[in-house]
Fold this protein.
Amino acid sequence: MDAYFEMFSGISGNMVLGALIDAGLDPEDLKRELAKLGLTNEYEIEVQKVSRSNIGGTYVDVHLKDEHEHHTHDTEEDAHHAHHHGRNLKDIEEIIDKSELSENVKSKSKKIFLNLAMAESKVHRMDIQDVHFHEVGAVDAIIDIVGSVVGLNLLGIERIYGSNINTGKGYVFAAHGKLPVPAPATAELLKNVPIYSTDTEKELTTPTGAAIITTLSDEFGSRPLMTVEKIGYGAGTYEIEMPNLLRVSIGSIKKNENEIKLVETNIDDMNPQFYDYVMDKLFSSGALDVYFTPIQMKKNRPATKISVMVSQHDLKKISDIILNETTTLGLRIFDVKREILDRKIDTVETEWGNVRVKIGLFDGKIVNVAPEYEDCKRIAKEKKIPIKELYQKVSEKFYKED
C-alpha cells in the first residue's frame, strides 16, 4: 500500500496521527503498540471527531498526566507555554531500543528523531547530545513520531509520497523567543523539499511534522497516478481561513514509465574531452539516455547540445551533475511521453559461449531481438571471430529455439 499526504494546511505530528486514524487505523491498536514504550504513566491519548471549515476530520490530543494540561501541536507558541521533560536524543533512543516494538518501527522512529535532533543541533550550533530542546524531549513528540510510524505499519503502508508543503507565515513565540515562520529547525528540515506560504498568519508546519514527512517520504510534488482506496483527514487545532486539515490518500501508486523528463542545454565553450566523462557520470547516476548533437549557435559558433532523458525521481540529481560538471549557465526541462515495448532478457547458448539477448514484445509477440553487444564483443575478441558473424548466429539460434 502507498500513501500520499496533501499538506495544503501544513503538517504536525498529531495531524499525521489524526489522518491515519480517520483513514481506518484502530485507535486501540495504536494505543496498545505505544504502550510498549513504557510511558503510559505520563500521557493519555484523546481522539475526537471534529469539523474544520465544514469538513470532517479526526483530532488527536495528548494529555500529559503530570502537568494536567492539554498539549496542542499546531504552533511553537503552545509548546512554549508548556513545561516538557528534559529528555535528550540518547534518552529517547534508549526508550525506543528497550521497547518491544518491531525493529522496523524502532529503526524508522530513531531516524526521524535523529534528523530532528540534527536540525536543532545545527540551528543552535551545539553538539547533538548537548542540545536541550522541548520538541525532542517532550512526551507528546515521542508519541507523535513513534505513533506515526506504528500507524503506517499497522495500515500496511510501504511507500509514502508528499505534496508541496504549506509552512504558514508570520512569527511564532517559542522557547527561544520570537521566531519567523517556518521556525529555524523546521526550515532546516525542509531543505530540498518544495515549500510555499499562503497568507495564513500561523505556523502550519511544525518541526515534528517536518521531521516525520521528510524522513519517510520518497518524493514530493503533485499527486501521482494513484488508485485510492481510503482517505483520511487529520485536524489541526485551530479554525483558519482554509480547512485546517492534513489529507492522506491510501491506495496504489503506479509509476508511469512513459512519462519522463528531457533535460537539455547548449554548450559552446567546454573542452570536448570532458563530454565522455560527463556522459558516463550521467548514465551511472540514473539517466535513461544521453546523447550529444552538434549545432550552430549565434554568430555561427559550433556547439554541442546535451540531451538527457531521465525519470522524475532522478531529475534533481541529473540536473545537478550537468550544472556542476559542464560550463552551462542553465537548463531546459521538458515533459516527455514515450511508448516502449515490453522487454525481457534471455540467454542463448552458442558454440563459443552464452550470449544475453534483449527481446522486445508487442502485445506478447516478439518484434525485436538484439544480442547484448558487450557479450558479443568479449567473445569475438576471445575467439577471434567477426562480431557480425556472431550477431547473426545468435539471432538465428534464438529464433530457431523460440
Notes: The longest strand covers residues 43-52. Residues 68-84 have pLDDT under 50 and may be disordered.
